[in-house]
# Entry
Amino acid sequence: NILDSVGAWLNFTNTFTHLSSDEKWGSLENGSWNGMLGDVYRGEKDLAINYFTITDERAQDFDFSVSYYNEGFGFIGLIPVPLPPAMSLLFPFSPVLWMSLMAMIAVACMSFHVLQLQYDRSRSISESIIAVSQ
# Structure
């Protein structure tokens, strides 16, 4: 609709095609452009509108509009050094998880010890810890 309005104002007509002559986007192969960019380069089309990445290779032959949409970003970092073997057991879990695990073991040991006392079995705390850990 916008191009029709501008065309009526500036006295030109337009036609749209949804595919290029070879149904490709456009790249430089064997010294010639193919796809939508090839159609524009050969003068078969006046304009191509699509998600084209602006590259130095394309900028040598084509004039791009101001990029209005940027897609694709990433982060890069160094590969971390391997941990010493002694730390490989501790590293996968956070300190909060380790503390929670220790608290759960303590609660289980104390609960087991209290249950043993209710049944008149006299075990020491250390014997209760050993029994729970088995």
User: Anything to note?
Assistant: The mean pLDDT is 82.
